[in-house]
Amino acid sequence: MRSKRTILAGLGLLVAMAAGGVSCAAEARPAGFVAAGDVVTDLVEEIHYFGDDNFVGEPIDGYEAPVCILTSPAAHALARVQERLAAFGLDLKVFDCYRPARAVAHFVRWAEDLGDTRMQAQYYPEVAKDELFEHGYIAARSSHSRGSTVDLTLIDRDSGEALEMGTGFDRFSPRSWPGDDGVSAQQRANRMLLQRLMVEAGFEPYEQEWWHFTLADEPFPDHYFDFVVGRGQ
């Protein structure tokens, strides 16, 4: 019953978002948002929620193109990280950036369907689906919807191969925590390089996901947007 109440609480929060002035209706891309690829040189965009390679196993609502949209300050901060990585022969690859509120609602609906576990072996083999809310792997509100949060990794500039980080993106496990000591020394060093450069550029890390960072001085700290992720808006 506890897990079911948690899911229902998440659904209730989404209703509250609509009632409390948080954007849940379709809207055009607001001023202050940019395509990160227009700001960050050689940014690699591998947006998992545009396709079916994600923990839900299908394209997610609100993703109409595989592009990274961010607030302008977040994109320019990311550009500073990319510039620093040149000395290491590395580049950034992003998995998710701005996330529409309707996408978060899609996650909540999926979490309520306890019979759909098709992606469990790949993404959450160590946790029961009805405990994903309880453990903080899914939330009814996401900082991504504020536009200054990015999920990303490091890749070799010449080969395009991702550096080893110990887990893949969206692996719901303590092994994904940045400080987990179960990964190899090299994998932890790779995580710490990413974290150090992101923090120096003004981002804050998330204690449960090595790939997740939010701009500390984000321009929309209280607004959850719902415009679609698309090109040329």
Q: TL;DR?
A:
With 233 residues, the chain is an alpha+beta fold. Helices cover 27% and strands 15% of the residues.
Task: Describe the protein's topology.
Blueprint: H1 2-19, E1 33-35, E2 44-45, E3 69-71, H2 72-85, E4 90-96, H3 101-112, H4 120-123, E5 149-156, H5 185-200, E6 203-206, E7 209-215
Parallel strand pairs: 2-4
Antiparallel strand pairs: 1-3, 4-5, 5-7, 6-7
Helix pairs in contact: 1-3
Give structural notes:
This protein has 233 residues and is α+β, with helices and mostly antiparallel strands. Helix content is 27%, strand content 15%. It is built from five helices and seven strands. The chain has helices at 2-19, 72-85, 101-112, 120-123, 185-200, and strands at residues 33-35, 44-45, 69-71, 90-96, 149-156, 203-206, 209-215. The strands form two sheets. A five-stranded mixed sheet has the order 2-4-5-7-6. Strands 1-3 form a two-stranded antiparallel ribbon. The longest helix is centred in the first third of the chain and has 18 residues, at 2-19. The radius of gyration is 17 Å and the shape is globular.
